[in-house]
Amino acid sequence: MTPTPLIDRPPVPDTSSEPYNDSALNRYSTLLAIKLLGSFRPRRGGVLMLTDQLCVKYGWDVHLSEASTLRFVAQHTTIPVPRVFCAFTRRNCTYIVMERIKGEVIGRGWVRRSEESKARLLSKLRRMIEELRQIPAPKNIGIASVDAGPLYDCRVPGPTIRFGPFKSMQDFHRHLRTGMDFDPELDHEVQELMRQHKKEWPLVFTHGDLSSLNVMVREDDVVGIIDWETSGWYPSYWEYTTACQVNPQNSFWADEIDKFLTPMPEELAMEHLRQKYFGLF
């Protein structure tokens, strides 16, 4: 018997994260800037570049927890992340006004870089991720966002676009299997996946999407890590297995991941098996 994943994924309201600097003036200024500049200023995905120093990320799928994460990482590490100026929700649309980091994505011109330049950048990136993973987990936290609320990752199956939080790792793994528990009629591979899912891993703070598009550089310096929407407290393998889900347009990055993250081949094989039966790709 082969399971069928759920595909209906509407957004769900969540109040676990609070607005930041949510004054009437900040709300008005943000909405006015989008109205005046939105038609001609450059965009990067859901981010509108307001000026050379400011940008705003907004949309129905943007969440206040990302603003909380940026502030949390800035407070607990030396990792360069965009400074948040304000964050609020209006009519089910969330707006995060933040610093625009000056630099280019690490993938731009990567093949033209010298091996020494690549090594310097990846070494710096590795130290940053190690620092992130050393943040102590709060007492009694489960698999959850920085605010102990729901998580977001469009690559994870489920009935809604956000999921969790989960009190235990077993609850999280059950969600990854769309709620499926052991049944002797299941395929042998699915039974093996369930056995692997019974293991326990340390809980670490995780970016969740360390692609070549989310690391900003200038020359041989890493000047920013951006797009923290998929971040949260996850099993220690999650950073590696999500990073290995490389966009086909940036396939070169697959050869670099093991240079800034500790390889976890058994967990990667486990995730490939999970995606085979329960993924949405």
TrEMBL record:
Transmembrane segments: none annotated. Pfam families: APH. Keywords: Kinase, Transferase. CDD domains: APH_ChoK_like. Residues 1-21 are annotated as: Disordered. Residues 66-255 form the Aminoglycoside phosphotransferase domain. The keyword Heme does not apply. GO terms for molecular function: kinase activity. This is Kinase-like protein.
